[in-house]
Amino acid sequence: MRIYVLLKQVPGTSDVKMDEETGTMVRTEHKNVINPLDENALAEAIRLRDTIPQAKVTAISMGPLHAQKALREAIALGADDAVLLSHKHFGGSDTLATGKALAQALVNLAGGSLGPDDLILCGERATDGETGQVGPMVSAILDVPVVTYVRKIVLEGRHIVAERVVEEGTEVVRLPLPAVITVVKDINQPGFPTLAGKLKAKTCDIPVLIPDDLGLSRDDIGLSGSPTRVVKIFRPKLSRDTVIHQQDTSGVAVDALLDFLEERGVI
Amino acid sequence: MVLGEQRDGVLHPVTFELLARGRELSDKLGEALSCVVLGCGMERFAEEIIQRGADIVYIVDNPMLRRFLPRPYSTVLARLMKEVKPEIVLAAATTQGRTILPVVAAKLNTGLTADCTGLDIDPVDRTLLQTRPAIGGNVMATIKTPVARPQMATVRPKSQKPLPPDKTRCGQVVLKTYESGIFETCEELVDVVKDRTQDVNVQDADIVVSGGKGLKSRDNFRMVEELAELLGAAVGATRDVVDLGWVSYPHQIGLSGRTVSPKLYVAIGISGSVQHLAGMQTSETVVAINKDRDAQIFKVADFGIIGDLFEVVPELISKLKERSNTKAGREG
């Protein structure tokens, strides 16, 4: 069994610069982290791997070369190996172009087609784009089932029983592998790097795949392979005319709040 | 084309928000607005869907569609969209919509924009302008799908008021049938468990009362629950509070929890980290109670009280009770 974790390196802060012309994020090599939900996905992959003899966890990412750092971190956390898709022509990919590239990489890594008990895990969304689209898109491109918002995974032979968090509660879905699962924070506490992991991460080879390696043409990838295009970016004006009261013993503040709420039709 | 959302055989009101959006866009384009509902026995909602703005309602009725599962839903929707060829497809940015639309978009090799808070038609080229927050809401992006069709978007719930039902509206109801194979799936819905810790989930609630670390203990958090009950509100919480085990994860609001946009959001003992703000800063009205005047939460609040929540909240609760007793007294 091979468990693939789709991992994204994201900015560690919300202080992100946008390229006004292309409307894409300027990804620098500083202050980046593994997307938190992908950390959860990785921890889950490792947990599952440890229950299945000879199973392996491969972390895959698409990004600038400095995303290798995130992949080394994944290995320090316990992934068996990692692969990076990186090339300037991948730049500016929207979710569909990203999905196509990752799907092709998965197919290649799996030796032509996904194995019958292969599993693909990723976080439900990334903290920068927050679309949550790549996981389901990859499943559609690979024509395998997907379960999203998963907080618990149980392996039953070649089947997965997944508990997903929906608005009104939870649903339990059972489906056969191979499959894609997107996970939410509730699934686990992400792990810590081990000494062995850190040593391995220092020296291991992380292959970098380019479009030619995946048989992808210019039209399939990057900005040109993206059906969506950002035409404008702006900082939202989140200024509200805040009315502030200082609490004291007079009770004026709370009275004012009640009046305010009544005015707004809430009470 | 708008995707109606059904849960448990009942049409969810977010459908009407989508119809309001769709109606506006259709009118600008001079095109018809259709609504698709997949499920079992959903035909009974067709009339209201028309009253709320649709010109055509497509009903696909099959026991296999009773509950949402990605495979049959995506296969049917992709087929229907290839037949109808809508210019635009909208769905709610709910767990259903955010799962099904990317699958369908990939099948149709077209573009999809997630979680839009703004939708408009470009007056020059008549394409859909899709505006959405990114990076925790610190940046807004307007996106187009210039060539690929349909132009697909999921829309943030509660970002649009539904149109009131107009009983004079007429429309067409089309019952679509397909060969049984289209509904087959390897997915099996084994169990559905309703969350009993809340009557209204945070995303559907009109009012959310949320508590943060400032409450200091699980026992104190009961104040938040009491206030919520008084206001008929759902209970929200910050990540810290959920990590401390005071409430369960479905109540978590923020970047790694849920995004809400209620009429009123009350933040109690919440400092307002970027991650938390990302989950609630588009709420219509925000009230914050915190003893730290520099707390970031006040930046997104319409009304704030700087003070000790252990004084403010009990006072608020007792005065609220008073007000409702007085009202009852008057009406009695």
What do these coordinates show?
The complex is a heterodimer of chains A (267) and B (332). Chain A is α/β, with parallel strands linked by helices. Chain A is built from 6 helices and 15 strands. Chain A has helices at 36-49, 68-77, 95-109, 134-142, 195-203, 252-263; strands at 2-6, 9-11, 18-19, 24-25, 32-34, 56-62, 81-85, 119-123, 146-156, 159-166, 169-176, 179-183, 208-209, 229-234, 243-246. Chain A has a 9-stranded mixed sheet with strand order 11-10-9-12-8-1-6-7-13, with helices on both faces. In chain A, helix 2 packs antiparallel against helix 5 (195-203) and helix 3 (95-109) packs across helix 4. Chain B is of the alpha/beta class and 332 residues long. Chain B folds into 2 domains: 2-183, 3-Layer(aba) Sandwich (Rossmann fold); 207-331, TPP-binding domain (Rossmann fold), CATH 3.40.50.1220. A 5-stranded parallel sheet of chain B has the order 15-14-16-17-18. In chain B, helix 3 packs across helix 4 (97-108) and helix 5 runs parallel beside helix 8. At the A-B interface, helix 3, helix 4, strand 9, strand 10 and strand 11 of A face helix 3, helix 4, strand 7, strand 9 and strand 10 of B. Strand 14 (229-234) of chain A pairs antiparallel with strand 10 (139-144) of chain B.
